[in-house]
Amino acid sequence: MTTTELGPRQIEDAAIEYVIGREREQGRTARDTRGTGVGDLLSGDRVIVVKACGTSSRGHELWLEPSHYVAARGEPDGFWLYLVENVAQGDPAHFRLIRLGEDRLQELLERAREQRFWTVPVPVRVYDEVAREG
């Protein structure tokens, strides 16, 4: 059996769809709010940020956008961080969902560190040129 691994956008979309389905199982109706600045999903009284992991997030740090950090600290009962793991392999039957919210999330946020960094784009054209050069 050949497994096709998913790319970054496909991983994100698969994780979002998976969480929407899991929220439905819990009796909540989640809707995609990506790009609105509110989080990734609104589900009942929850603002959910979904972190899609290709494999496992065990022992790793999670990056939160500043607006998400502020929202999580300001609405400790209504802000949730959902980790969807093992997404790159493509089969939702093998995904794992870890929900962090309320006191557990606040405990983790107490140890959060603000960092500043620069992202450097590497356009496909440049990547391909450099890769050909060896």
TrEMBL record:
Limits of the Protein NO VEIN C-terminal domain: 11-92
UniProt name for this protein: Protein NO VEIN C-terminal domain-containing protein
Species this protein is from: Trujillonella endophytica
